[in-house]
Design goal:
The protein is α+β, with helices and mostly antiparallel strands and about 230 residues long. The protein contains 6 helices and 15 strands. Helix 1 crosses helix 2. The model has no long low-confidence stretch (mean pLDDT about 95). The structure holds uracil.
Length: about 230
C-alpha cells in the first residue's frame, strides 16, 4: 500500500495533508524519514508520525445501543445520526441494516462491506430478536398469526418466534428486515407497537450496554458472526 493512502486511511489527514506531513519529514518508516508519498509499504513496516506508531486497522466492528431519535444513517441534514455517537478515525463505517428513528437497541456498525452485505442477504436468515410493548392486550390468537407466514402488500413474512411476556409485552424474533416489519406484524394482530427495542442480532446480544453506549466487538464475536453466514446458506 502507498504511504499516503495508509496515513489517510488512518485519518492522519486528507490525502493532501498527509503529503505535507511527508514533505515536512514528520513521517518515518522503520525509523527512517521517508519523503515520497507513493512509497510502497510492506506488511512488516512500522510507520510513525512525529515518532508515534500509526497501526493500520483495516476493519472495525462496533455494537451500539441506539437511542430513539437517531437515524440509522451516516449523515442527514435534519436529524441526528447514529454515526455521531461513534468516535472512530475511520470514515468508511456504516450501519448493518436499519432501525427506525424511534426504535432503540442493538445495531452493528462496520466498514467490512462483505460482512455487512452477507448479514443482510436474505439467504443467510440472520435472526433478530425484538422486545415489544403494545397499546392493548395481545389477543389469544397472536401466536397463531405471528408464527405463520403473514401476507403483506409487498411481501410475505416468514414464520416468526413469538414469546409473550405479559398482556402488553412480548419478544418477537424474525429472520427478515423489511421496512417497519415488526410494527406491521403486530398491526396484523390488532395492536400498535408503542416501544420497540432490538436485543439480539444473530449471535450478538446487547448485554450491559446502556442506551447510547457502544463498544468494539471482540475477536470471538467477529468470528462467530462470520461463521453465522456460512451456517445458514
Ligand atoms: N421492525 C420495525 O418495525 N422497526 C424497526 O426499527 C425494526 C424492525
Amino acid at each position: 500500500m502507498r504511504l499516503d493512502k495508509y496515513l489517510a486511511d488512518m485519518s492522519c489527514g486528507t490525502r493532501s495533508q498527509v503529503k505535507d506531513l511527508i514533505k515536512d519529514k514528520r513521517v518515518k518508516v522503520n525509523d527512517e524519514i521517508i519523503r515520497k508519498a507513493d512509497y510502497q509499504l510492506k506488511d512488516t513496516d512500522t510507520v510513525k508520525v512525529d515518532d508515534e506508531i500509526i497501526s493500520y486497522v483495516e476493519y472495525e466492528y462496533y455494537i451500539l445501543n441506539k437511542p430513539a431519535g437517531y437515524l440509522s444513517a451516516v449523515e442527514d441534514n435534519r436529524d441526528p445520526v447514529i454515526m455521531e455517537l461513534i468516535s472512530s478515525k475511520r470514515k468508511d463505517l456504516s450501519p448493518v441494516g436499519r432501525l427506525d428513528k424511534d426504535t432503540e437497541g442493538l445495531i452493528l456498525i462496520t466498514n467490512d462491506g462483505q460482512l455487512n452485505h452477507d448479514l443482510l442477504s436474505p439467504k443467510h436468515h440472520v435472526l433478530k430478536k425484538y422486545y415489544v410493548e403494545l397499546d392493548k392486550d395481545l389477543p389469544e390468537n397472536a401466536n397463531n398469526i405471528l408464527s405463520n407466514p403473514i401476507e403483506f402488500e409487498d411481501f410475505t413474512s416468514k414464520p416468526a418466534i413469538y414469546e409473550k411476556i405479559d398482556n402488553k409485552k412480548a419478544y418477537l424474533t424474525i429472520s427478515e428486515g423489511k421496512y417497519h416489519q415488526v410494527k406491521r406484524m403486530f398491526e396484523k394482530v390488532g395492536c400498535t407497537v408503542t416501544y420497540l427495542k432490538r436485543i439480539e442480532f444473530g449471535t450478538l446480544t446487547l448485554g450491559e450496554l446502556k442506551i447510547g453506549e457502544y463498544r468494539l466487538l471482540t475477536e470471538e464475536e467477529i468470528a462467530r458472526l462470520k461463521e453465522l453466514k456460512n451456517e445458514n446458506i
